[in-house]
Specification:
2 domains; 5-stranded parallel sheet; 14 helices; globular; two-stranded antiparallel ribbon; alpha/beta; Helicase, Ruva Protein, domain 3; disordered N terminus; Rossmann fold
Length: 337
Amino acid sequence: MDVTTGGSAPLAEAEMVALAEKALEDIAAIRLEVGKVIFGQAAAVESTLVAVLAGGHALLVGVPGLAKTKLVTTLGTVLGLQSARIQFTPDLMPSDILGSEVLEQADDGRRSFRFIEGPVFTQLLMADEINRASPRTQSALLQSMQEYHVSVAGKRLDLPAPFHVLATQNPLEQEGTYPLPEAQLDRFLLQVDIGYPDRADERRILIETTRLGEAAAAAVIDAARLIEIQKLIRQMPVGESVVDAILNLVRSARPEAGAKGAARHIAWGPGPRAGQALMLCVRARALFEGRLAPSLDDVRALAAPVLQHRMALTFAARAEGITVSQVIAELSAEIGK
């Protein structure tokens, strides 16, 4: 038996296949265009695209110089989205993100306040080095990431659709960084870990990016088409076995799951939002790979990106050198058993 979520009626099989084939053509064109600019990092590109196709936000984590910012900029161009960039610094204020009211005086002497929109009023917001700003400033993004509107001077101001935040983060052990609040971390659909490229990819980077006339990406789709694909993904069927696997995985990552196994190392675990994120992302990954329904392999592949920023280990576990990735790998090994 298959299940779907959302208020709309399930699509007929023939209609679903036709829409999926058209979406696959667009996704293939997007991947090709991104590949002209971003060399290697296939896993990071896939995870970031999955987050956007699923309609969510992504946190890109890695040391400086791994093309995190370039990836976000390229995606904004290829997806045809209005984009803005905020460089997070220790002195950044919430008004620098949301905007502020200014007092203006008309020719007749009358004064009134006018709201000047901040960079958050865009479709793709790049929050560069988000953990270099203070927690107070970081929290300015909370409402916009969850509710897709902001409140300024008691008024609700809706953000453009679609709205995505792709944030880059430096490792916390580097100087001048602040840990993101747990509530904000939970708003990110995925955490995308970006590592160093292999030798062949790094050789290509050296050659391609230092010659005259560096390659540039072009728009493949627009915002309206992206929204259509996102709606299609929400209508894709999900098998009962996949739903049960998601439930079992998320619930097993909580300390109350029991004293046995990996759960004994967990201080706090993911809430229901993690399950919602997995439900959306497994659909998006299935379509990304040319399938009409997700499988257990999708759950295994997305377990770490969805869960690792939504849980923390006990002091004893950290003292033993146990990592979140190891715990998630142990939990993922139980999927399908």
